[in-house]
Amino acid sequence: MMDNKVVVVTGAGGGIGRDMALAMAQRGARVIVNDIGAGLDGSGSSTGPAQQVVDEIRAAGGQAAANTDSVADASSAGRIIESALDHFGRIDAVVNNAGILRDRFFHKMSVEEWDAVIKVHLYGAYYVSRAAANHFKEQNSGAFVHMTSTSGLIGNFGQANYSAAKLGIAALSKSIALDMLKFNVRSNCIAPFAWSRMIGAIPTDTPEQQARVAKIQQMTPAKIAPLAVYLASDAASQVNGQIFSVRNNELFLISQPRPVRSVHRSEGWTPESIAEHAMPALRSSFFSLDRSADVFSWDPI
Ligand SMILES: NC(=O)c1ccc[n+]([C@@H]2O[C@H](COP(=O)([O-])OP(=O)(O)OC[C@H]3O[C@@H](n4cnc5c(N)ncnc54)[C@H](O)[C@@H]3O)[C@@H](O)[C@H]2O)c1
């Protein structure tokens, strides 16, 4: 499915990214395995993880090269795309997967915690996509796959920075899909559920928490890879601007905001008439204050 394609997977030194890189290569793609080898909070760096995944791909007979530039800076993100051209002479697909977490309740979150997460996720996805966009436009083809999250699409505690970035990525993807449709460029999102170090940090202090984590551990990162390969391939030529989710053996199409109900008054609204008329009429369609786990309330299948 990916023969003759060159793919960049960011943050591919571990977790979901590693499995996507392996699966891309297994289907014939030449892969740039990007990873700065950072800690979960974005601190530190190591060339080890990216090179290790490259070694795995080569050992299985595939073609790959490592890149350890950060997605979180415009010029280094540009170098990630350049490394695809340097090593393999072209770029066909970009998977924006690199990520970090700095969870904190909103009222305690520092500017630094906000910035660090927005920088890697939202700016990172923008910088890498923007660097690839020129090449995609020129060659009149290309595919973006971005990792979003139900923390942003639905909600979660203690993740204002991450949720804002991930919902921003969904909007970025939609915008790219609209703007670059005329150049035959597609852009889609995946909201993955997978056991990785990113959710390995979930506390296991109580029996309930332990039971929850045991369930989550069934969802392996490898389950995300087939959808990423499909979306990056020409088989998905008619799939654009969509948001999917994968949870173990379940695959979902996620809704996108649309008006659900309207009220109208020919003379217009006052704050009083909104209170007396509009809100009571709209209230039955209000959304509850769900978190991701409230919506995905059944065990992974
Ligand atoms: N695991 C889940 O259930 C889950 C849920 C929703 C969304 N996601 C998203 O999926 C993606 C992968 O997550 P994961 O669970 O595999 O996490 P992970 O921590 O295992 O992988 C993220 C990788 O990104 C790398 N990275 C961090 N900062 C970077 C930077 N500036 N430049 C390049 N690489 C960088 C890290 O070194 C790491 O290897 C992330 O975007 C995450 O937000 C994961």
Helical proportion?
A: 40-55%
- As a whole number of angstroms, the C-alpha radius of gyration is 20 Å
* Termini gap: 27 Å
Order of helices and strands: EHEHEHEHEHHEHHHEEHH
Bound molecules: nicotinamide-adenine-dinucleotide
Percent in strands: 5-15%
Question: What is the topology, as strand order, of the major beta sheet?
Answer: 3-2-1-4-5-6-7-8
How does this model look, in words?
The protein has 301 residues and is α/β, with parallel strands linked by helices. The chain is built from 11 helices and 8 strands. Strand 2, helix 2 and strand 3 form a beta-alpha-beta unit. Bound molecules: nicotinamide-adenine-dinucleotide (NAD). Nicotinamide-adenine-dinucleotide binds next to helix 1, helix 4, strand 6 and helix 7.
